[in-house]
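Quarterly update from the structural biology core.
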Amino acid sequence: MAKSNTPAKSSILDAHVMSAEAALHDRFGLTYGQLQKVIADAVKGTGGKNGFCDVFLQAGSALGVSLDQGVIKSTSASHTSGAGVRVVVGDKTGYSHTDHVTVGNLRRCAMIARAISEHAVDSGNVPLSPVSSVPHDLYAVTDSPVGIELKERIALLRKMDQLARAYDARITNVTVGLFVEDYTVIIATSRGDIMADKRPLVRLNVSCLAEEGTRRETGSSGGGGRFGFEVLSDETYWREHVQIAAKQAVDLLGATAAPAGEMDVVLGGGWPGVLIHEAVGHGLEGDFNRKGTSAFSTLMGQSVASKLVTVIDDGTIADRRGSLNIDDEGTPTGRTVLIENGRLTGYLQDKQNASLMQSKLTGNGRRQDYRYAPMPRMTNTYMAEGESSPEEIIASVKYGIYATTFGGGQVDITNGDFTFSATGAFLIEDGKITRMVKGATLIGNGPKALHNVTMVGNDVSLDKGVGTCGKDGQGVPVGVGMPTIRINNITVGGSKS
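Predicted structure, tokenized:
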């Protein structure tokens, strides 16, 4: 038998450990041995209970620049260096953080976290096993996006401003923003794991104001992901966003008021997947279901949607905004099927909730930064494709709304009720898109709406890379997506033109 040149899994993991230890020394001047002593002190006071400790360290920079009214309105730069220590016993979490990373400060954090958790009742659950799978390599970045000169970033914004104004004489103002960051995170745990991840992220936003007479309308677009500045500087990339924003603003000048009432709605592919994220995704996060506060808490294995509906959370898609090589607990991210052919099959889990629920660990432990303890969060959440073409779906609707982009929205996870405003919407009459409408608001219930999905398109796509999800005061980058779908009997709220 020929000898394989593929490295053994253990040797790959050893290389990651070596890389993490090197990052720990380079970024913070600490050794892994010093962290191990901090962790040992943290779990020593848990009274022999089934305690768990991790240390999360973060260092890096974020830069921003924005242009408005043809001039640079603001620039920003922030530099982060800090760490948090977490001690978990059963369902109790102690957490403390420091903005100045030294061994002494980490020990103080460990003492505080231990004191918070030491009176917890032992859950009796078996500790989760150490990380054993290989971390991903999802970010194809050669040069850090924060290494790009300010003048280069400003030059890009000016090009976008000029192109937008040239689109139509009715474009009277353009606002463009560029935000880049690059952080290194290191996670060490009481199970003997140490992992590191270098996380680049870029985001580009453009907004256009169009005016005609007394009417003023705004269009917007944007994109980004875990890649370098070279992607943004490619004209074919940013030109698309400028044209989308300018066209939307100009088209809205001629839009009429959206009709109101219960009707069939077609959602376009990509960004409308935010409805899945809000109306369904949050309700499938482990902590809400463990506590019994989600509408899905008692429905595992049951039908929660049309058989045409499959919903997936996938943190392993290369370069995507919501993707991570490892989550914020050091677990490699995964692809989790949450709903399969209408049946509830999974929840999104971090270590604590997976342990308490005796459930599969999915790699969804996330936090905004080192100042926060992790919790179950989505990564890239989308509905899988079906068999119908977008043209067939639109042609099937006698009278309804075709929504392509959404603005703000809200959902009550306890019952799934949602409200979303459609910033890009069109009227469908006799199977044809006839005119643009404005002020359309979709009102409904997530589980009920999923049961009313009657057609699913073959054109699944993810959003352009602008999503940020908020939960309990924390914001994290996420992705959303879906194919074109038809949902029957959605309540649409209209407005005056």
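Confidence is low (pLDDT under 50) at residues 1-7.
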